[in-house]
UniProtKB/TrEMBL annotation:
Residues of the signal peptide: none
Organism: Amycolatopsis acidicola
Main EC class the enzyme belongs to: transferase
Annotated ranges, domain Aminotransferase class I/classII large: 29-361
Protein name as annotated: Succinyldiaminopimelate transaminase
Gene3D superfamilies per the UniProt record, alphabetical: Aspartate Aminotransferase, domain 1, Type I PLP-dependent aspartate aminotransferase-like (Major domain)
NCBIfam families xrefs: DapC_actino (TIGR03539)
Amino acid sequence: MSSTALPDFPWDSLAGAKTAASAHPGGAVDLSVGTPVDPVPGHIREALASVSDIPGYPTTHGTPELRESAVSALARRHGVTGIDPAAVLPTIGSKELVAWLPRLLGVGPGETVVIPELAYPTYEVGALLAGASVLRADSLFAIGPQRPSLVWLNSPSNPTGKVLGADHLRKVVEWARERDVVVVSDECYLALGWEGEPVSILHPSVSGGDFTGLLAVHSLSKSANLASYRAGFVTGDPELVSRLLEVRKHAGMIVPRPVQEAITVALADDDFLAVQRERYARRRLTLQKALQDNGFRIDDSEAGLYLWATRGEDSWQTVNWLAERGILVAPGTFYGPRGGEHVRVALTATDERVAAAADRLAG
Ligand SMILES: Cc1ncc(COP(=O)(O)O)c(C=O)c1O
């Protein structure tokens, strides 16, 4: 049996830089991954525990309360109206969905999946697991006359923090509808706009209130510090969601019942989201200033959890330069060939570690 030819897991190649950064007398400041560091709020932990005595299997579709909670969160936080709660489907974090979505929708060999030029690596993995081809393209022009089966969008972007405006998103949706192409928007950073206001693909200004052919993928990892719980959901076109539900029921892709409860409570809590946003906003300003004062240019980065920074040199040179100062970041090449002169600096470190990074940059 042959294994699917997947790319090497990119973070393994950071081992040398990690060793160098860890040799710093003050220890490494790890800004190479977007993993939350602030605690899970007490009431979310209580929600998780409150149903931990239930012995039976949970439903793949999630509790009605979870689905209602997702619908109201999208309306309150992002102005998305008109979603039928039946068209909400919880996922075990969003990474598994990203990795399996093309396969779950029946995309296969001979078909093409479009991903952003600079992209979260799992979009490519998902296309390869389905046996499909990958095309990196940021514009309809770059797609040309081809008719892909599925187009991934990611705004705010990992890694660049770029926000796609409603006009851009609408053009993609119109183009896709004319060609019967599914558009999937990964919106896991939607609540983290700093200089731009990110828009959901399901927002009426983009979708016109018609969700046909559209899916929005959401995660609670970053907005509610729930990366360890594995908590996300997908919504949009009721027909597509119902196809996903059918396959996921057969395949046992079920969110554990306690996590479903945690998702329900977290999606109802805008106050905690505001607190967490404040933390990231502060860390972002500290890192942005420290980098800019020390010869870096920051590109895009209007939203999301990363600064897309460059010193105008090969990205590995920058990774090593920072590692010598005890700071670990990811080279832009992890996200696509166009990232060769950038590094991705995550905002997910404690205030103490972020202050340490700023001190080290100041020399
Ligand atoms: C763009 C993007 N999508 C999806 C994910 C997956 O997040 P999770 O599986 O924690 O929901 C990440 C994680 O960093 C991401 O950056």
